[in-house]
Request: fold
Amino acid sequence: MIGGAGAIRPPITVGFGPGGRDRTFVAMDQGTATCAATLVGRVEGAWRLLAATALPAGGDPGIVSALLVDRVQHADPELAAQVGLDRRTGQPPRLESASGPAPVAVILAATEATRLALETEAAAAGWLTLGASAEASDPLVATRLATGAEVTALVVGTLDPAASGEREFAGELVALAAAVVERRPNLVVVLAGAAAGREAAFVPEARIIGVPRPRDEGGDDLRSGLAALRAGPTDTRRGLVAAAGTLAGLLGLRVELLEIGMGGALRVRAAPDAAGGPARVGSAEAPAAALGLVSDDASLDRLDGWATAPVDRARLRDRLAEIRLAPWADLEGEGAILRAAALRVATQRLVEATDAELGGPAPDLLVLAGGAWSAIPAPAALHVVADAVRRPGVLQIALDAARLLGPLGTVRDPEERSRLTRDLLRDGLVPLGTLVVPRGVRGGRAAGHLRLLAGDEPVEMDLAGGTLSLVDLPPGREGVAELSFRSAADLGVRGRRFALATTGGLAGLVVDLRDVPLRLPDRSDERRELLARWERALWPEHDA
Amino acid sequence: MRPEDVVSFVVARPLIVERPRVVVPLLPGDRVATAVGAIVAPGDLLAERVRDPHLVDAVSDERGVPPRPGAWVPATPRRRRTSPAGELLFEHEGRRRIVAGPHPDLVAAPAAGAVVEIHPGVEIVLQLEGIGIPGSALLGDPGHGRLALLPGDADGRTLLDVAHAGNVVVFPGRVDAEALTRARAMGIAGAIVPAFSDRDRRDVVASDARQRAGLHRLAPFPVLVLDGYLRRALAGPVHDLFAALAGVDVGLVGGSSPMCVAGVSADVVPSPQPDRVRVRGGREAGHEGRFVGLAGPRRVAGGIAIETVRLVLDDGRTVVLPLGDLERFA
Reply:
């Protein structure tokens, strides 16, 4: 959405084109924890990133914009004059997107199987879910869940077609939901499958949405309905879905995007269309994969399993709860290390929750988006991916460090969005490097040899199983990595010799010769030591 | 940029809320004992809390206007057995589902005000006079008492005294579940703590549940947590405020906006200085000082580059800290 003079306006599609009058704008992603703002200016015919910052959420957007303008004016008055920056003549227009904590929906279904299926759809639409079924819970438990203060929607019903025996429960479920709405009149009710069409059971003022076919592929399905209920056109995650499609089309690459924040998580896969049409895009959210969300002891165990700092479980739980209370605080030192562990858990959860729909071979480019990735050093982000997504293949990884993609994705006109994204790619997407993950390499022994041709002198390196091998390949450099393994390895295809195109980044070329899936020592002290050793390799300031 | 613009980058939290609207949460089966528009005083009965609720099936009564969900249904004599009194959960195809159970625990008004909304089984909304001091969580049911600010920052157990019975005590520093259990046993009416660990919270909730398992009626023992989970002392402006309110009747309420409410004018509240900040997290957590200005993006321990600020701490040191580690009261 593009605003003017610091105000938010409805989406428009003019102003940033070659003939547009605006020479600067501020892209602003208002997240749950932080607000990322980027001042963009038109320099020598192209949009360039001039300044960026991230501040605790909740600040006045106008003052944040003014801060960026001040900084550019102080740092480079000529450039500021060239792009027409002058605080006295008003603020640059803003292109804003926003995301908040995932809302909570209660799912009421006849059977446990249907409840799980409906919960999956609601979660993919960005809702945190609580659920009860007639099969496993009594009506009192269901009513208690549905009348909770945090609940904003009720989803009642069946899938389409309803399973045998479900229809007879539908009437009672609807009666229960209608009674709940009399107690909580502000709830939105979604009647799905066999429950659709029973609006008459509710008080007239109730807000009811009917979804007769929850899995309709025509766009009237439950997921679309719930997604529209949750978020408007300026939603950051909606923007990221559009932006991933634009990236895939611009670069001609299969793009995967993993977004993780304090309020939720999103996975997008986009592939260019061979016929030159719009990219094919699939996406799903996983709000339970929000950073630091510990719902039970199993979640805490999982996080404890990735922790490299010696923190006992009680303290770990408290620190995570503090992160949820004040997510912008305590980013230094151990706070960053704890966030890295939480980020591994969140990434794993996101991938697990969406793999059935979006899984598959490694894409060409993985883009990391969302505030959680900015809370650790960029090279460490690549290591988090290597730990949490154990998928054989070769992957370029980039970081949306300034959180530009969300706001850019809200630009409604695809051509305008594409022009802006093309110009801002080199400034906005920080290349982290190339990650190579072969499967089938035995740990603890010589595994093969690497020869990297990038520049004047080739780099030669012996590869050892069970290790991370790092080669310095700075951003902007490209090369060819020749890998020869002692025995056949799986890099998406099985073989002993591979020649791979590689691109540089802040982490360089990383050949991950550890097990797929990763096997870690059972003893916590040994595990921590091993994880910390790996972590230090890509995080030199780890112990600072 | 103007100084007031720059300090606005520090996360602000309200020191007080004037004329707070507070929520008293209910559960299905709780019996409402007040009405919309009622003027209540501290201690007035709002609802009776159901203990061990269970569902009872009853045949719908075809006579008269059917009750709405949440309505209280009196006991109905039947040929075979009497349906117990309870709250109507819902009615479907001639069958009523009623939540029944004993109601030994009372929910009382935490402060003077008016009942403005009642949602049976969900909440009672009160419009209160005076001020509210926001917290982050309330453990237990609402309660009220005279405010007493304990001295120092020592172990809470050494500070408690039977003379505090009936008071809501403010622990200025460290406190654990054991100290609160002792406070409850001494007849203290409630507690306000700066921070409380998750383990201690669960201990307090479990202790409350154990006590409620008894047959006798139990006085509420609300615990208001002002900040979070990690140990820290009361913020200076909050300490000053509680010191000003010592001896005043206060109430502790929960819901989505937990707070300590007091029937006093906002004029008695000492105003915090606009450039006064508190370090909430990081290496200087707990310190307070004066905000000087932004120090720009810097690489901090751990290797990330974040916005930092310069401030003068109360001990005289000038330090540069991450912006996100600060908070101010407004």
